[in-house]
Amino acid sequence: MSIEDLALYLGDSKRTIYKYIASGDCPPYIKLNSKNIKFDRADVDQWLESKKVNPKQHNKEE
């Protein structure tokens, strides 16, 4: 999926996706060239799964 597709899938803007990429906090991607980046949906779903927070554990960490 393209950056545009990923933005739609996540409900974020393209700018936010570029920020994720710049920070290194993004799903694995394939860089075909400097202007063409692709994401695999399975990698995106796995990345999202890794971002889940258990509310009970989250409150204990604060």
Protein architecture, described:
The structure is a single chain. It is built from four helices and two strands, in the order ααββαα. It is α+β, with helices and mostly antiparallel strands and 62 residues long. It has one domain. The protein has a two-stranded antiparallel ribbon. Helix 1 crosses helix 2. It starts with a helix and ends with a helix. The model has no long low-confidence stretch (mean pLDDT 91).
CA-based gyration radius: 13 Å
How many angstroms does the end-to-end distance come to?
A: 36 Å
Helicity, in percent?
A: 55-70%
Q: Could you say how many structural domains there are in total? A: 1
The total of beta strands comes to 2
Detail the poorly predicted runs: none
Mean pLDDT over all positions: 91
What is the gist of this entry?
The protein contains 4 helices and 2 strands, in the order H-H-E-E-H-H. It has 62 residues and is of the alpha+beta class. Strand 1 and strand 2 form a beta hairpin.
